[in-house]
C-alpha cells in the first residue's frame, strides 16, 4: 500500500534517525568504534568498495549464480506447480510433501551439494535452485488456483478456446500473483546463493562477507552488509511497484 | 417455540423503560470537514412501546441508537433512559442487539448469554439459571451447549437477543438485527420478537431499512430524513395485535407503508 | 478420474521407496557413498557417537529455545501492538516487509565479531531472523479479529481490562499460534545455519566438521537429527492448533492468492 507524501516522509525520517543514532553511538564511544564503525565511515568504505575491481567481480559472480539458478528453477517449478494445480490426484499426493519440504531448514543439505559438486559455480547454482524451486512450485499452484472458477465458466459459456482462455482469463488473472511469486522466489534464491557462498566458496560477495567477518574487518563487513541490503531492497521495491501497477483491479 | 400463555414476564412494565431524546444533535469531525449526522432530534418513547426508526441510508438512525446505548455521546441535547442520562453502556438499563450477532466463537451459546453477567462477577450458578431462562425465552431451550459455528444465522441472532435480555433491562435497542438473514428467517424472527416483547413488556427501539418490517412490528414508526437526520414523521400503527401475515396484504398496511415511503422519497 | 490407489497410500509408497532407495542405491554402488551414504551406515554412525550427537542436540535445543522466547515473544507482542494501531502500522509495516527481502544471513558474521562464536551470537542472530516474519504475520493476523466482537463487549459494559482479557486475547489465539509456528520454524533455521557457518558446538557444527573430513555417514546422521527436530516441532504445533481449532471458526477467513503466497513468504528461506 503506497503511502501519502507525509507517510513517505515519515519513513525517510525514521531511516535517517536510525543512521543518526548509529553515528552517535559510534562516534561518542558509547559503543566501541572498533566493534561499530560509524555510519559515515561505513558509507565511505562502501563507496570505496564499489570502486574495487575485486568487489565488482564478486558482485558479478553472485549475480550470475542468482540469475542462472532463477532461470533454471522458474520454468521447472512452474511446470510442476501447474501440473499440481491441474491434476487433483497429483495435488493430493504432492502437497503434503511440499509442505514438509517447506518446514525443514534447507541449509542442512549444503554439505551434500558440496560433496556432489565440489566448491564452485555449480554448487552454488545448485543450492540456489534447490532453495527456489519449492516456493516457485507452491506459488504457481496458488496462482493457477486463484483464477476464479466463475471467470472460467463465463469464458467457456461464450465458447472460448483453450488458447483464448489461457491468454484472456488465466494470464491477466494470474499476472499480479505471478509477479509477486517471482519477487518472493528471488528473495529465496538470493538467500540460498549467498548462504552457499558464505559457507564454502572461493568467490562471490557472500564469501567476501564471511572473510571480512573472519578477519574482524568491521568497516568492510558493515559496508558489505549495507550494500547487499540496499541492492536487495531496491530490487524488491522495483518489482513491487510493477506489481502494484498490474494489480490495481484486485480487491 | 413456547405458546404465549406459558411464558411469565420477567418483570412487569412500569415507569421503567421510558426514553427521552431532547434536541439531540451529532456532528462528526473528520480530517477534512464537519459532518452533521443528526440535527435537533426530539423523541419520546413511553415504557413498553415498540418503536421503529426508518430512514434512508446515512440518516443517522443507527447513530441515534448508539447514543441511546451509551456507546457514543451526542454533541448537543440530552438523552434520558429511566430519567437518567447514559454516558456509557449500562446493561442494567439497556440491552443492545446488533446486525451481526457477534457471539464469541470460543464460548458456548450459554456462555455467550452469560457473558454480561460474568463481567459483573455474578456467581456461576446464578448466571447459569438466568442464561437458561433467557435461552428458553428466545426458543432455544436445549441449545445452550452448542458453539456458535454449530448454529444457523437465525439461531445466532436469537442467542444475541437472549444475551441482550439476560440482565432484564427495561429497554432493548436493536440495530437492523435481521438484516443479515434471508427473508423467510426474517419473517419468522419478526414474529418471535413480537412474542418475546409481548411476554416481557420491554421498551423496544428497532432500526430497520425495511418499511414492511417497520409497519409489521411497530406500535409507532419514526421516519427520519437523509443527512442531516431529522424526524420528518412519527406515526402510530393502528393495526391490532397480535399482528398476522394476512395484514401484510391489507389496505391499512399498504396505506401506512405508502405514507412512510413518500416521506422518505421526499427527504432523500 | 478414478485411481486405483488413494493419494495417501501413494504418498506413503513414495516415502517408503525413497527410504528403500536411500539404503539400496549406495550399497549397490550406483551412488558413491561419498555423496549419499546408505541409510543404515548413517544411522550406525549416529548411534555409535550418540553421546556426541546428544550433546550437540542439547546445545542446539538450548539455543533454539532461548531464541524462540525473543523471536516469538517479541515478534508476537510487537506485531500485536503495531497491528492494532493504524498509524504505526501504516508507517512501519511496509518498511518491515521491505527488510524481508534482505538475506539476513549476512548479519551473522557481524554477530560473531560482537558476541564470539558461542551460543550468544547464534541466539542473537536466530532471534532477529525469527522476529521479523513473526511480527509481520502477527500484525496481519491481528487485523482479522472481528471488531464487532469488541463493540458487542463494550455494549455490555465491559471495562478496558475486561475487553482485553476476555475478548481480544481469546480472539487472537489463532494469530498467536500462527506466529509461534512461523517464528519457531525460522528460529530453527537460523540456529542451524549459524551453527553451520561459524561455531564450536551444536548439530550444525557437527555437520560441517564431518563434512570437512569427508565423513558422509556422520554428516547425514546430523542431517537426520535436524530433520527429526523440525518434524517434532511441526507435530507439536499441529497438536496445539488442533486443540485450539474452535477459535478458528470465528475469525474472518478472507484468503486471497497473494495472502497464500505471503504465508509462503514466512517459510524458512533456507
Supply database-style keywords:
heterotrimer, A: 251 residues, mainly alpha, MetI-like fold, 2 domains, globular, B: 268 residues, alpha/beta, Rossmann fold, six-stranded mixed sheet, four-stranded antiparallel sheet, 7 helices, disordered N terminus
Word description of this protein:
The complex is a heterotrimer of chains A (251), B (268) and C (270). With 251 residues, chain A is an all-alpha fold. Chain A has 2 domains: 1-36; 41-246, MetI-like fold (Orthogonal Bundle). Chain A contains 10 helices and no strands. Chain A has helices spanning 5-27, 39-51, 53-86, 88-103, 110-117, 121-146, 149-157, 162-199, 205-214, 218-246. In chain A, α3 runs parallel beside α6 (121-146), α6 runs antiparallel to α8 (162-199) and α8 (162-199) packs parallel to α9 (205-214). Chain A starts with a helix and ends in a 5-residue tail after the last helix. In chain A, 41% of the residues are buried. With 268 residues, chain B is α/β, with parallel strands linked by helices. Chain B folds into 2 domains: 16-93 and 171-268, Rossmann fold (3-Layer(aba) Sandwich); 103-168, no CATH class. Chain B contains 7 helices and 10 strands. Chain B has helices at 61-68, 109-119, 124-137, 153-165, 183-200, 211-217, 251-267; strands spanning 19-29, 34-45, 50-54, 76-81, 84-85, 94-97, 171-175, 203-207, 220-224, 231-236. In chain B, α3 (124-137) crosses α4 (153-165) and α6 (211-217) packs across α7 (251-267). Chain B is globular and about 50 Å long. The termini of chain B are far apart. Chain C is mainly α and 270 residues long. Chain C has 2 domains: 1-36; 37-265, MetI-like (MetI-like fold, Orthogonal Bundle), CATH 1.10.3720.10. Chain C is built from 12 helices and no strands. The longest helix of chain C has 38 residues, at 160-197. The two termini of chain C are 37 Å apart. The model of chain C is unreliable at 250-266 (pLDDT under 50). Classes of the chains: A mainly alpha (251), B alpha/beta (268), C mainly alpha (270). Chains B and C meet through α2 of B and α7 and α8 of C.
Amino acid at each position: 500500500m503506497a503511502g501519502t507524501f507525509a507517510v513517505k516522509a515519515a519513513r525517510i525520517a525514521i531511516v535517517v534517525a536510525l543512521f543518526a543514532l548509529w553515528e552517535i553511538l559510534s562516534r561518542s564511544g558509547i559503543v566501541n568504534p572498533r566493534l561499530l564503525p560509524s555510519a559515515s565511515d561505513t558509507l565511505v568504505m562502501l563507496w570505496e568498495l564499489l570502486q574495487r575491481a575485486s568487489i565488482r567481480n564478486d558482485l558479478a559472480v553472485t549475480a550470475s549464480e542468482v540469475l542462472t539458478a532463477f532461470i533454471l528453477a522458474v520454468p521447472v517449478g512452474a511446470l510442476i506447480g501447474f501440473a499440481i494445480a491441474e491434476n487433483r490426484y497429483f495435488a493430493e499426493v504432492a502437497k503434503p510433501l511440499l509442505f514438509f519440504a517447506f518446514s525443514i531448514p534447507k541449509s542442512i543439505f549444503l554439505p551434500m551439494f558440496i560433496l556432489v559438486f565440489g566448491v564452485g559455480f555449480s554448487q552454488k547454482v545448485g543450492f540456489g535452485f534447490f532453495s527456489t524451486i519449492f516456493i516457485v512450485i507452491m506459488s504457481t499452484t496458488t496462482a493457477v488456483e486463484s483464477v476464479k472458477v466463475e471467470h472460467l465458466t463465463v469464458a467457456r459459456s461464450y465458447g472460448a478456446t483453450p488458447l483464448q482462455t489461457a491468454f484472456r482469463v488465466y494470464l491477466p488473472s494470474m499476472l499480479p500473483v505471478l509477479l509477486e511469486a517471482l519477487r518472493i522466489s528471488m528473495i529465496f534464491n538470493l538467500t540460498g546463493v549467498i548462504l552457499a557462498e558464505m559457507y564454502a566458496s572461493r568467490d562471490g560477495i557472500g564469501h567476501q562477507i564471511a572473510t571480512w567477518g573472519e578477519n574482524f574487518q568491521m568497516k568492510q563487513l558493515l559496508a558489505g552488509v549495507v550494500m547487499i541490503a540496499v541492492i536487495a531492497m531496491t530490487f524488491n521495491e522495483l518489482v513491487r511497484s510493477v506489481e502494484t501497477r498490474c494489480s490495481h483491479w484486485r480487491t | 417455540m413456547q405458546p404465549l400463555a406459558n411464558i411469565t414476564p420477567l418483570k412487569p412494565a412500569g415507569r421503567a423503560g421510558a426514553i427521552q431524546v431532547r434536541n439531540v444533535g451529532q456532528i462528526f469531525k473528520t480530517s477534512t470537514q464537519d459532518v452533521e449526522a443528526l440535527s435537533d432530534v426530539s423523541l419520546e418513547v413511553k415504557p413498553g412501546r415498540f418503536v421503529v426508526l426508518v430512514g434512508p441510508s446515512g440518516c443517522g438512525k443507527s447513530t441515534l441508537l448508539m447514543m441511546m446505548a451509551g456507546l457514543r455521546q451526542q454533541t448537543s441535547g440530552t438523552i434520558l433512559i429511566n430519567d437518567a442520562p447514559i454516558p456509557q453502556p449500562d446493561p442494567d438499563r439497556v440491552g443492545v442487539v446488533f446486525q451481526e450477532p457477534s457471539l464469541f466463537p470460543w464460548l458456548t451459546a450459554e456462555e455467550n448469554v452469560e457473558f454480561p453477567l460474568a463481567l459483573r462477577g455474578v456467581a456461576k450458578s446464578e448466571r447459569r439459571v438466568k442464561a437458561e431462562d433467557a435461552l428458553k425465552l428466545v426458543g432455544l431451550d436445549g441449545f445452550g451447549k452448542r458453539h456458535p459455528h454449530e448454529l444457523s444465522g437465525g439461531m445466532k441472532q436469537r442467542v444475541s437477543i437472549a444475551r441482550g435480555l439476560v440482565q432484564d433491562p427495561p429497554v432493548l435497542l436493536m440495530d437492523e438485527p435481521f438484516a443479515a438473514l434471508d427473508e423467510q428467517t426474517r419473517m419468522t424472527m419478526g414474529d418471535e420478537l413480537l412474542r418475546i416483547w409481548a411476554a416481557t413488556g420491554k421498551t423496544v427501539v428497532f432500526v430497520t431499512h425495511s418499511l414492511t418490517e417497520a409497519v409489521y412490528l411497530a406500535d409507532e414508526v419514526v421516519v427520519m430524513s437523509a443527512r442531516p437526520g431529522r424526524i420528518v414523521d412519527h406515526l402510530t400503527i393502528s393495526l391490532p395485535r397480535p399482528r398476522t401475515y394476512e395484514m401484510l396484504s391489507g389496505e391499512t398496511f399498504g396505506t401506512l407503508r405508502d405514507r412512510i415511503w413518500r416521506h422518505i422519497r421526499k427527504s432523500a | 478420474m478414478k485411481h486405483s490407489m488413494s493419494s495417501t497410500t501413494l504418498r506413503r509408497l513414495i516415502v517408503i521407496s525413497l527410504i528403500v532407495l536411500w539404503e539400496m542405491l549406495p550399497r549397490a554402488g550406483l551412488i558413491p557413498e561419498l555423496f549419499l551414504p546408505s541409510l543404515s551406515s548413517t544411522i550406525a554412525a549416529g548411534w555409535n557417537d550418540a553421546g556426541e550427537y546428544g550433546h550437540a542436540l542439547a546445545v542446539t535445543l538450548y539455543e533454539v529455545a532461548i531464541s524462540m522466547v525473543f523471536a516469538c515473544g517479541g515478534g508476537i507482542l510487537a506485531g500485536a501492538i503495531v497491528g492494532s494501531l493504524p498509524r504505526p502500522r501504516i508507517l512501519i509495516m511496509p518498511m518491515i516487509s521491505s527488510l524481508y527481502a534482505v538475506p539476513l544471513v549476512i548479519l551473522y558474521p557481524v554477530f560473531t565479531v560482537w558476541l564470539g562464536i558461542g551460543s550468544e551470537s547464534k541466539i542473537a542472530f536466530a532471534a532477529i531472523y525469527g522476529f521479523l516474519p513473526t511480527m509481520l504475520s502477527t500484525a496481519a493476523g491481528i487485523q482479522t479479529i472481528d471488531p464487532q466482537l469488541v463493540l458487542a463487549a463494550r455494549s455490555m459494559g465491559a471495562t478496558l481490562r475486561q475487553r482485553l482479557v476476555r475478548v481480544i486475547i481469546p480472539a487472537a489465539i489463532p494469530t498467536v499460534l500462527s506466529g509461534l509456528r512461523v517464528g519457531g520454524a525460522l528460529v530453527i533455521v537460523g540456529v542451524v545455519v549459524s551453527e553451520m557457518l561459524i561455531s564450536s558446538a551444536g548439530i550444525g557444527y557437527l555437520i560441517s566438521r564431518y563434512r570437512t573430513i569427508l565423513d558422509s555417514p556422520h554428516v547425514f546422521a546430523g542431517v537426520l537429527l535436524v530433520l527429526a527436530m523440525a518434524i517434532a516441532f511441526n507435530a507439536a504445533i499441529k497438536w496445539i492448533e488442533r486443540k485450539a481449532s474452535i477459535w478458528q471458526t470465528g475469525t474472518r477467513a478472507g484468503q486471497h492468492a497473494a495472502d497464500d503466497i505471503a504465508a509462503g513468504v514466512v517459510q524458512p528461506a533456507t
